[in-house]
């Protein structure tokens, strides 16, 4: 960890500690939720619903405070604060959790399920509940709900892409989890892990040649200013979860624990259906801003990325989950 990263982590921890102290008078219990998303992202509306409905259902005993644009620090730092028992939560994908419970990584594997309905069946299944229990017991993290769908991820470039061969030599930003980097490499690009907040500057300064993301995040980060093409590969169906401290949740009265989990599931649906309903207008907005949104035959990408499951040991798991998704 370099000096800047250490300093960032210390600052984030200090901010979180001061927030915890200052909010103690507002309610019996306070949860600070960190997200990399901007406030105009459809998913953020779900977080606002979570905040409001938790306050209502708990008669003001529980307060949820929202911190968009990673105000409390990088996701990984907030996860570590949660593991240490701090009352913080963060919206993260399964790849970030695979370091604790390997099975979570498969949620970010390529072409696992289509749209929200299929992947929702997976993350509300008995099999998923087993993973969540392991995460609670072995990593000290509690899954409030994992039905926060952000859309399908596409390629963002300044070069026209028609197939895997066009990605040769392209430095493609992606999160650093093995399932993500493995997918991008299998698609033909060179995976280049970089914090989301640095993607805009990375593209404009040509530190990276491209990125991959879901449409709400592209618009939220104003990437239309630094890309020319969105190629609709839909290679990863981005489902995320609201993750917090297991120790903190366990310390709450049982009725408040129930409220947190029930309201998180309801809010995840609000966020996900809001995302689904916004996709068409976001595509139009990108086109109006000069970005070419291209539909292509994704069959070559599906074939190229099939190896990712076996390389990461998810072959058998893929079959089980696709059966659940298609049920």
Automatic annotation (TrEMBL):
Provenance organism: Martelella mediterranea
Top-level taxon of origin: Bacteria
Annotated signal peptide: 1-26
Alphabetical list of Gene3D superfamilies matching this protein: Bacterial extracellular solute-binding protein, family 7
Protein's name according to its UniProt entry: Tripartite ATP-independent transporter DctP family solute receptor
GO BP term (any one): transmembrane transport
Keywords: Receptor, Signal
